[in-house]
Amino acid sequence: MTAQHDGRPVTVMVVDDHPMWRDAVARDLAEAGFDVVATAGDGPQAVRRAKAAGPDVLVLDLNLPGLPGVEVCKEVLADRPELRVLVLSASGEHADVLEAVKSGATGYLLKSASTEELLDAVGRTAAGDPVFTPGLAGLVLGEYRRLAGEPTPTAADRPAAPQLTERETEVLRLVAKGLSYKQIAERLVISHRTVQNHVQNTLGKLQLHNRVELVRYAIERGLDDA
């Protein structure tokens, strides 16, 4: 996986309260061609530095002093919704995974992952793909379905759904089924970037901010069963 994003190195920030672990991850990323623009060791520091450094990807531990990782995720994304968050945690507890996803994280990797898996995950996260430790993706999709079954408070205030093109609807349907952008590109015989463009256009039309909201929108309309 290339460490490029729009022709420049992918910028990454690493947040972990263990200095040796944090430095090791930052060093591995830098050696692989990523541009590590900041690191932080506690929650409040992470929020401040993420807002200042504006990385493409935030590699975030959940267990942080001062402010939990999920709160860091929410605060940073409220300020910069385009940021991608990859949680790197020692916990594979389902409750932790789901809370991270609900707070806006686009991926969740266990700390038992190899360096190669981490580098691949950061690259794929930068490209907009959801990355989950094997076994967790199904859990997350199940949670999307459960969320979609709950009434959305703003549904009554929302204007009529904008018109999506046939291709945008097709891409949206595959996103809702849990396919990665790479898998969608292969299935539709189009480029990865074209898939990303369709998703970005769809997000803009629907006034949504991230893939989590997009999947929820699709499932609410039954597109995952189509």
TrEMBL record:
<feature type="modified residue" description="4-aspartylphosphate">
    <location>
        <position position="61"/>
    </location>
</feature>
<dbReference type="InterPro" id="IPR000792">
    <property type="entry name" value="Tscrpt_reg_LuxR_C"/>
</dbReference>
<dbReference type="InterPro" id="IPR039420">
    <property type="entry name" value="WalR-like"/>
</dbReference>
<dbReference type="InterPro" id="IPR001789">
    <property type="entry name" value="Sig_transdc_resp-reg_receiver"/>
</dbReference>
<keyword id="KW-0238">DNA-binding</keyword>
<dbReference type="InterPro" id="IPR016032">
    <property type="entry name" value="Sig_transdc_resp-reg_C-effctor"/>
</dbReference>
<feature type="domain" description="HTH luxR-type">
    <location>
        <begin position="157"/>
        <end position="222"/>
    </location>
</feature>
<protein>
    <submittedName>
        <fullName>Response regulator transcription factor</fullName>
    </submittedName>
</protein>
<dbReference type="InterPro" id="IPR011006">
    <property type="entry name" value="CheY-like_superfamily"/>
</dbReference>
<dbReference type="Pfam" id="PF00196">
    <property type="entry name" value="GerE"/>
</dbReference>
<keyword id="KW-0597">Phosphoprotein</keyword>
<dbReference type="InterPro" id="IPR058245">
    <property type="entry name" value="NreC/VraR/RcsB-like_REC"/>
</dbReference>
<feature type="domain" description="Response regulatory">
    <location>
        <begin position="11"/>
        <end position="126"/>
    </location>
</feature>
<dbReference type="Pfam" id="PF00072">
    <property type="entry name" value="Response_reg"/>
</dbReference>
